[in-house]
Design brief:
This protein is mainly beta and 411 residues long. It has a domain of 135 residues. It has two helices and 29 strands. The protein has a ten-stranded parallel beta sheet with strand order 4-6-8-11-14-17-20-23-26-29, with helices on one face. The longest helix is centred in the first third of the chain and has 17 residues.
Length: 411
């Protein structure tokens, strides 16, 4: 009995030691930089208490934390609860770096003004995960130089978040993008918007997203999301996808891809020897010298699942065979399909609503609907064209029934 009690006591002590610590960050007594060091080393640092196990950093409600230096590397499990705070990198360097053993979750934060270094300036000014894990929830990444977010040999997710108005560097930004880079990683993106990002010069591709598999397989699964208003000096204004022989797949389900521009090919999507599956998505109103909507050079682009491509009877695709269930609309331009203004239409992230009479409304039979909700968290399907049958809409946005004036039931 005494031996059993002693073992139980030791196990309880070890378990208690592994419990997470909560570190309260106020930006002055306990800075974010010191809090991350305390969490990573389990040692009190500056005015911050010591971390222990998987730590939680609580930021002030709607605070404004201006960093004097990058936060350093993260090699342990850390959750940052931003509570609406701005984390301003002050152009001092990359804000967050996650390495092997690191697992960073960022919640409810506005992360801005990060700059990747002159040494590895291809790899994001906001956050880079290298052989680690990264999860971003209900957050905004904006105004970063060298790209916003980079996954390299990592796993992670982006949910209910916005990646906007970020830029790559110049010629040294080869093959990397302004918004999100997924390199030899497995990443899911849901209910998120990627807009207004740019690759500025050189050979950089993928204004919104770049996906590549330099030394191992890569997978990007994107649902109920919007890619809009991104530009690239090279291929892929919205998405650029390249396979270097290690296995590379992208799955796009209920994604709206509009108003992206490539100076070369694939204004919406550029695919090079890779595999892409597009389901119940809108790819329209993009600009490129070849394949304005989708340009595929080798590889496989699988469609025929109630997609909408192009406008004015022109699908705008090269290297892609449009399927029988897909739509090539007769509308003269994209404004007959979606509202081209990115707006707050409900939910956590901005979206492009469908215009009255859009061919995307109720175009997917209810039995074939791929998602049970849309990007704004509305349930699918809805009878958006008031024909008495509730079917699903193509793209990220499910059109409300126009007969319902107020969704709460009050007029």
């Amino acid at each position: 009995m005494k031996k059993t009690a002693l073992v139980s006591a030791l196990l309880l002590e070890l378990t208690a030691g592994a419990h997470a610590a909560t570190i309260n960050v106020d930006g002055t007594t306990c800075t974010l930089n010191d809090a991350i060091t305390a969490a990573d080393t389990d040692t009190a640092t500056g005015g911050c208490s010591a971390g222990s196990g998987a730590d939680v950093l609580e930021l002030p409600i709607d605070g404004n934390l201006i960093l004097a230096a990058p936060t350093g590397t993260i090699n342990t499990e850390v959750t940052i609860n931003g509570n609406g705070s701005v984390i301003d990198g002050n152009d001092t360097g990359r804000i967050f770096t996650v390495q092997a053993g690191g697992n960073l979750t960022i919640n409810d934060s506005i992360v801005t003004n990060g700059v990747s270094s002159t040494v590895d300036r291809n790899f994001a000014g906001g956050v880079r995960s290298y052989d680690g894990q990264l999860h971003i929830n209900r957050s905004t990444f904006s105004e970063h130089l060298g790209g916003a977010i980079n996954f390299t040999r990592s796993t992670g997710s982006i949910t209910d978040s916005v990646i906007e108005n970020n830029d790559s560097y110049g010629a040294a930004a080869a093959y990397y993008n302004g918004g999100l880079t997924v390199s030899s990683s497995t990443v899911t993106v849901s209910n998120s918007t990627i807009s207004g990002n740019n690759t500025m010069s050189g050979t950089a591709g993928g204004g919104g997203i770049y996906v590549g598999n330099y030394d191992s397989a890569v997978s990007l699964n994107m649902t109920n999301s919007t890619i809009s208003g991104n530009t690239s000096v090279n291929r892929g204004g919205g998405i650029s996808h390249t396979d270097y022989g290690n296995g590379s797949t992208i799955s796009l389900t209920n994604v709206t891809i509009i108003d992206n521009t490539s100076n070369v090919a694939g204004g919406g999507i550029a695919n090079d020897a890779s595999t892409i599956t597009i389901s119940q998505s809108i790819v329209s109103g993009n600009t490129g010298t070849a394949g304005s909507e989708v340009y595929s050079s080798g590889g496989t682009v699988t469609v025929d699942d109630f997609n909408l491509f192009g406008f004015n009877n022109n699908a705008g695709v090269v290297g892609v065979t449009i399927g029988a269930s897909d739509i090539v609309p007769t509308e003269a331009n994209v404004t007959g399909i979606v509202d081209t203004t990115l707006s707050d239409n409900g939910g956590a992230t901005p979206t492009h609503a469908l215009v009255t009479g859009s061919p995307a409304i109720d175009a997917v039979p209810a039995a074939s609907c791929a998602s049970v909700t849309d990007q704004t968290a509305k349930n699918r399907p809805i009878d958006g064209n008031v024909d008495g049958t509730a079917d699903c809409d193509i793209g990220a946005f499910e059109n409300p029934n126009p007969d319902i004036i107020f969704e709460d039931g009050f007029e």
